[in-house]
Q: What sequence folds into this?
């Protein structure tokens, strides 16, 4: 396997892991939201904060991976995806409310389309699966 092919293979595997990680964290946040109806919020608050921080880090890792893949000419993406990637990477404050992500950076408040961002990564994986 050529060096470039190996590099692309490693990036694709990392992309799959990154998407899975983000989805697991998002599912955990949904479960916490469901548990809020049964358990007092103050009990779940610390776990929710830690989970949101984990989501921020997982999304940052995912976005850096997408950027590296683009810089290595494995993929290309739209301006909307590029803006979401940059917003997450450069954010200094990250908020998550009912599936919506809001980040704040030097440019101010920026909404991030999480579903579009994850769908983009999934489409990359699907295109690789179709090639095999």
A:
């Amino acid at each position: 396997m050529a060096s470039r092919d190996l590099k692309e293979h490693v990036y694709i595997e990392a992309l799959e892991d990154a998407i899975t990680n983000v989805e697991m964290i998002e599912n955990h946040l949904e479960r916490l939201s469901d548990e809020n109806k049964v358990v007092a919020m103050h009990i779940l608050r610390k776990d929710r904060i830690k989970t949101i921080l984990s989501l921020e880090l997982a999304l940052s890792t995912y976005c850096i991976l997408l950027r590296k893949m683009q810089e290595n000419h494995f993929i290309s993406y739209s301006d909307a995806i590029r803006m979401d990637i940059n917003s997450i990477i450069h954010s200094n404050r990250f908020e998550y409310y009912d599936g919506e992500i809001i980040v704040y950076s030097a440019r101010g408040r920026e909404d991030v389309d999480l579903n579009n961002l994850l769908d983009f990564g999934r489409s990359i994986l699907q295109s690789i699966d179709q090639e095999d």
About this structure: Helices lie at 3-35, 41-71, 79-89, 114-131. The chain has four helices and three strands. Strands lie at 93-97, 100-105, 108-112.
